[in-house]
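Sat 14:20. Reprocessing the chain from the morning session after the first attempt stalled halfway. Input below, unchanged.
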Amino acid sequence: MIKRYLQKIIENSLNKGKIVILYGPRQVGKTTLAQTFMSDTTILYNCDRGETRNAFETTNLTALSSLVEPYERVIIDEAQRVRDIGLTLKILIDTYPKKQFLVTGSSSLDLANRVVEPLTGRHFSFLMYPLSLSELQNECDPIALREQLAERLIYGSYPDIVTTKNMSDREQLLRELRDSFLLKDILTIERIKQPHLILDLLQAVALQIGQEASYEELATLLGLHKQTIKKYLNLCEEIFLLTSLRPYTTNQRQSIRKKRKYYFLDLGLRNALINNFNPLDLRGDVGALWENFCVIERMKHNAQLRRQPNYYFWRSYTGQEIDLIEEAGGTLSGFEMKYKKDVLPTAIHHAFADIGGRTLTLVNKENLFSTLLVS
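Finished this time. Tokens:
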């Protein structure tokens, strides 16, 4: 098993009298990581099973006690499937504050909405991404890591994909994972009358990575209302299929109303959606793949260092743009992603300084590892 950076963080958090919640996309390795905490005094409950799910859908203390009392550590997997799970967990942590509870979920929409209010002040939460470059560097030498970069852009970084060497098997796994997102996550959370429209929307977004998404244009393209487009895109973020950046402006209320840029948490899924696993030298979207890859790797990098900046993009009225801006403590750091380019124009440095930016970094395939690896 590839060691995940969250393992040590979760291990330390379990000893602090809080419920630890592990979010993340399906198949990203949450259950595998949870299983590393198994011991003779640990029990793991899988809430994909109807009987287990029903057992936790109660506020009866005697019934809940029978599930956890014999154990020092309790792992509840796929907890988003349990109705009113937040109230159940509140009862458990209030009754057994010295026990360790680890809860996993593959939908922040379901799980967060059900635990935030009942567990206020009673939990830590962590997002598990697909494998990062920093995690992969522990499995291979620097030369091999660089040689595998094209594979990450085409097939992504899900654990099963990384460890599967046959390309046809990778493509099949990604198609099955794509269908799991669409059929098991989206359609079970929302009753959508025409589910093919979600696929059409995601394909449209996949073809405009790095561009500002126009809700009006997407609505016209798909024959849907603008609010429906927003609803579907929000849903895709809640199940960790997409993430979005708002434009940076000094008026953040105005920023919320403007267009966003959408990125896929994993490029393998993006390429599965458009059914394109062609090598890089046969593609016309390498720049978009690179931008998506670097933005997400930067988010993984910050998560591993326990940083939580605000993320934006920036575009001037004259067309100058910066792919990613991180704001933390009032300091702006900019990153421009270019697959081959090795110099940024002086004008963009001046423009970034004019909006209060401190550092602007070019991220290309030559300096990627020095920029994004955590030693």
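Residues 12 and 308 are 19 Å apart (CA to CA).
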